[in-house]
Specification:
Layout (H helix, E strand, L loop, with lengths): L1 E4 L5 E3 L7 H4 L2 H14 L4 E2 H8 L5 H19 L4 E4 L3 E4 L4 E3 H10 L3 H7 L14 H31 L3 H14 L4 H13 L3 H19 L5 H12 L45 H6 L2 H8 L34 E4 L3 E2 L7 H15 L6 E2 L2 H6 L7 H8 L3 E10 L2 E10 L5 E10 L3 H16 L23 H14 L4 H17 L4 H16 L5 H18 L4 H15 L2 H14 L4 H13 L3 H14 L4 H13 L3 H14 L6 H11 L3 H15 L3 H13 L3 H17 L4 H10 L3 H13 L21 H10 L11
Parallel strand pairs: 1-6, 7-9, 7-10, 8-10
Antiparallel strand pairs: 1-2, 3-5, 4-5, 10-11, 11-12
Helix pairs in contact: 3-4, 5-6, 6-7, 7-8, 8-9, 9-10, 9-11, 10-11, 14-17, 14-18, 18-19, 18-20, 19-20, 20-21, 20-22, 21-22, 22-23, 22-24, 23-24, 24-25, 24-26, 25-26, 26-27, 27-28, 28-29, 28-30, 29-30, 30-31, 30-32, 32-33, 33-34
Length: about 800
């Protein structure tokens, strides 16, 4: 049997013990093998999944070729019988063909053989391994590493508890130290270690553990331990720590995070303990260990450059000047619902915890007079170590709701606390122990209690029936609801793979409950984005959006997501601009606090040439969702179409600083550079993305445009030749070619490709009148003819025309 070592040092050995060096020298192929071994666990993996993970930069044909070539090379190196296929679309490792230490580690841990499991765990999964052109694989790898560390930590804690109960304090302390080493990012684990060391009489080691942790915090993040940790170390130093009775939940599981007799201070409720901290090095290395959006939330201001007070967190623009929002100038109570922490262990239920948070955000957003931070902004802070005051400032809210979810068999425990963001004092806390089938009533109960706490502060008094409409019963089928939550979790990834997987979840939910309106709305949202990102032909995307959104609204008349997706489909796919505006207004009336409707309505207003209104609508979306990268890009787009290129560049560059890998950045920042005559910067940006992501035809078209407008005709035509060569291998969108010809001054060719774009109903044509790319064509009668056929009436005033 082939032995594959992935934990700590990487090694692959043939049955005779010979090292298979040829495979080890090929990073993407070893990553593919590791994914099949560690993730597949003998189960089949869809080829589409593998294409999205390892070759996202390639079109489907080239990606499939690359996958087939990799499998061929692996078969040749390690044996033809290692892989099995289920039809043409699934791949798996043959049962018993490869022994993998990661799989053996998890199996031993789940079977209660903790010591055996930890013998396998010699370090992180694929330690030091990195594939820059496979971001989704890197995300999976980071998640899997964290999961395996958590499994190792639980195994070590179980051994510490076992030895402590058997009266072996030194062995208990050794295992506790090892457990804490696996959880350096978790302050609760450090407290747990301190409590155990104190109990076994090693107070000096407890103090050293605290001092080492405090030093790391100060050196790497410039912050101090939490009040709970400081309180515990003070108690240890003065020998005033209190005993804590062991608590077990009804299912017989551990209801605290500590060992049975740990101190009360060391074992605060779960919601107060999940405080992850990046401890992988100092300075720059810390930021690299965080994903860019987490880095933003952990220590960068989201003040919009050039916005002054209006853009500073905690300071809103004068709402009286904003006819879109319809707000008064009076202060309103506000709350942010942070992503709930998944404490279930074992099977990944993060999507369920995230879903609970999203449902509460949606419910509270319906309350008149209460301002609720949008999902995107709240979830930007997931996994960060910001204190409540900093979160309040970042999201401009007065209170913060945080919590945790622990699922076991058919029971669920939800722990929540509402905290005043100004002073950090707890306003309310509660623990709910229920059967899983009662999850709907638990959500409603939490939402009602939060509203009750804020009732006296609300600008508009809550009507007697307000609570009844907080959380309308979406489905009575728990499995359908769980699939819906998983679908939303996947949809929020915004990747082709995530969107398609979300569709599967929504469809399964509908199969279980054909009257589940929100699941149909989820389908509409997924198809809407698949069309926008051009993963699906415009006509097909439009048809599916209209069908699924229509079904959602047939079942429930006011579903904001369905109304918004239908309005957007009428706008960019059907070119029914009058109908789109009616639908957008209905969606805004349905839920004025839904940021996506203000974002997409802003795009509609841009296309209509109503640029000042568009800017106000995007400002409203940004006020509701201040940490959303896409909303910030949209706001920059409104400035771009107004001809305020410097302002647009500031906004785009702020987003690029938050997330350098944000995939839509070159499509917006590059054209703004070009319009500002910063050609070399545009060229550098495009070439960098092309080098990292492959020859994307759209980016090649923009690169040719930058060279042409800079007066470098030879370079522009060379890039154009590359683009045409690409077109021989796979079809490309006609508007890409139109951009090149327009920039080269070849009006006849440009209009020929614009006509083809019209025939294919390329959605980018809705911006034809305001896009400066086509400014040189506006005096041609063919331009007015095309714009009229699209349905774009002549704007009364365009600021940059």
């Amino acid at each position: 049997m082939i032995r594959f070592y992935t934990l700590g040092s990487l090694d692959l050995k043939a049955p005779d013990g010979r090292q298979l060096k040829s495979v080890l020298a090929q990073p993407k192929r070893i990553a593919l093998l590791a994914y099949l071994a560690a993730c597949g666990k003998g189960e089949s993996i869809r080829r589409d999944t593998l294409l999205g993970l390892f070759w996202p930069e390639l079109d489907e044909s080239r990606a499939r070729h690359a996958l087939n070539q990799s499998l061929y090379v692996l078969r040749r190196a390690i044996g033809p019988s290692v892989f099995v296929s289920t039809g043409d679309e699934e791949v798996a490792l043959a049962p018993g063909a490869i022994w993998c230490d990661a799989t053996a580690f998890v199996e031993a841990a789940e079977s209660g053989r903790a010591e055996e499991a930890l013998e396998h765990y010699r370090g992180d999964l694929l330690e030091g391994f990195f594939i820059s052109e496979a971001p989704d694989f890197e995300k999976w790898l980071d998640t899997e590493r964290g999961h395996l560390r958590a499994v190792a930590a639980r195994a070590a804690w179980s051994l510490a508890e076992e030895h402590e109960a058997a009266g072996r304090p030194e062995a208990a302390a050794d295992w506790a130290r090892r457990a804490a080493d696996f959880s350096l990012e978790n302050e609760a684990a450090v407290r747990r270690l301190m409590g155990l060391l104190d109990r076994v009489g090693d107070r000096a080691s407890a103090v050293r553990a605290y001092e080492a942790f405090a030093a790391r915090l100060d050196q790497e993040l410039g912050i101090a331990p939490s009040p709970e940790t400081k309180e515990l170390i003070a108690a240890i130093r003065t020998r005033e720590s209190r005993p804590h009775a062991d608590t077990r939940d009804e299912a017989g599981g551990d209801a605290s995070l500590g060992l049975g007799s740990a101190h009360a201070i060391a074992e605060r409720p779960e919601s107060a303990l999940a405080r992850p901290l990046p401890l992988t090095g100092a300075g720059k290395e810390i930021w690299e260990a965080l994903d860019p959006e987490t880095a933003l939330a952990a220590g960068r201001s989201h003040t919009l450059p050039g916005d002054g007070e209006a853009g500073r967190p905690g300071t809103a623009a004068d709402p009286q000047d904003d006819p879109v929002s319809g707000e008064t100038g009076e202060p309103r109570p506000s709350v942010a619902v942070l992503p709930f922490v998944d404490l279930s262990g074992g099977e990944d239920r993060e999507y369920f915890a995230d879903g609970i948070s999203e449902e509460l955000i949606s419910a509270l957003a319906q309350v008149e007079g209460l301002r609720v931070a949008a999902r995107t902004s709240s979830f930007q802070l997931k996994g960060t170590d910001l204190d409540v005051k900093a979160i309040g400032e970042r999201l401009s809210v007065g209170s913060v709701l945080e919590g945790s979810v622990r699922m076991r068999d058919d029971r669920v425990r939800i722990t929540v606390q509402l905290v005043n963001a100004g002073d950090g004092f707890q306003l309310w806390s509660q623990r709910y122990d229920r059967e899983l089938k009662d999850i709907f009533s638990v959500q409603e109960e939490i939402a009602r209690e939060i509203v009750e706490r804020l009732r006296s502060e609300l600008v508009a008094p809550i009507r007697q029936d307000e609570g009844a409409r907080l959380l309308p019963r979406r489905t009575a089928d728990l499995e359908a609801y769980t699939l819906y939550l998983k679908g939303r979790y996947l949809w929020n990834r915004r990747t082709a793979e995530g969107l398609r997987a979300s569709i599967e979840c929504f469809e399964l939910a509908i199969a279980l409950d054909p009257e589940f309106a929100q699941a149909y709305a989820g389908l509409a949202d997924a198809y809407s984005l698949l069309g926008w990102y051009r993963y699906l032909p415009a006509a097909e995307a439009c048809r599916r959006v209209m069908e699924t959104a229509g079904k959602a609204l047939e079942l429930e008349a006011r579903v904001p997501e369905a109304l918004t997706s239908r309005a957007y489909a009428k706008f960019i796919y059907e070119w029914d601009f009058e109908g789109a505006e009616i639908e957008f207004q209905r969606a805004i009336e349905s839920n004025p606090g839904y940021p996506t409707v203000h974002h997409w309505y802003g795009e509609y207003l841009m296309a209509m040439g109503r640029l000042e209104e568009a800017n106000r609508s995007l400002r409203r979306a940004h006020d509701l969702d201040p940490l959303s990268l896409t909303v910030t890009v949209g706001l920059g787009w409104s400035h771009y179409f107004q001809g305020s290129y410097d302002r647009a560049i500031e906004l785009y560059e702020s987003v690029a600083a938050m997330d350098p890998e944000f995939v839509i950045i070159p499509w917006f920042l590059g054209p703004a550079y070009v319009q500002r005559a910063r050609y070399d910067e545009a060229v550098g940006l495009y070439e960098d993305w092309l080098a990292r992501r492959g020859d994307h035809p759209g980016l090649m078209a923009l690169l040719a445009q930058a060279h042409a407008l800079a007066g470098r005709q030879m370079e522009a035509r060379a890039v154009h030749a590359r683009l045409e060569a690409t077109a021989l291998r796979a079809p490309i969108f006609p508007d890409y070619r139109a951009v090149v010809h327009a920039s080269l001054g070849e009006a006849d060719d440009a209009f020929e490709w614009l006509e083809r774009a019209f025939e294919e109903r390329c959605w980018v044509l809705v911006f034809l009148r305001v896009d400066p790319t086509y400014a040189g064509l506006r005096s041609d009668p063919r331009f007015e003819s095309l714009a009229s056929r699209i349905g774009l009436s002549t704007p009364s005033a365009l600021e940059h025309a």
